[in-house]
Amino acid sequence: MNVRLFIAIETTGQTQKNVKMLQDKLKKSDADVTWVAPENLHITLKFIGYIDEEKTGSIVTIIKESVTHIKPFNLSYVGTGTLPTEKDPRVIFVHAEENGNILSTIHERLDNQFMALGVEHETRKFKAHLTIGRIKTRRNVKKLIEGIHSYNEFNFGTELITQVVLMKSDLFGNGPVYTKLHGIDLL
Known about the structure:
This protein has helices at 13-27, 56-66, 102-114, 141-149, and strands at residues 2-10, 33-35, 42-52, 73-84, 89-97, 129-135, 155-161, 163-172, 175-185. By secondary structure, it is an alpha+beta fold.
């Protein structure tokens, strides 16, 4: 049976609360946005997509190899932005910042190793971020962008990252449901 998988860094309490505060403020713009539930906030390190569930063991092995010699590290969530551009915003995000390009290193290792399982190589440059909303139409986008700008320097929190997780994503009409399948500790 095929399952939809991705590899991520999870967020915790205070960051989730601060992002929810931002989402509540931005909702006042009455823009047409699908908001990410705070408990679903994460940084995607590698989207795998649909893959045979029997390959889960191999996937966990690849993740373990990709985080070899990577110790727990601090990750800060500071400022906001839109993707792909501010003129054509489709995604609202919070920046993720850390010293040493650790997330980029993990992403690159994962990306290279997953090609052996037939998972496509990423074509876009990796940018560590929390997607907090997806813009559906242009309704009230200007007002929304003004609200996003007011949080350009806001510090949403710093977390000690001790684990990379393999997540399953089940898509439903009212949004995705994420299930943590495995947590791989950073040592």
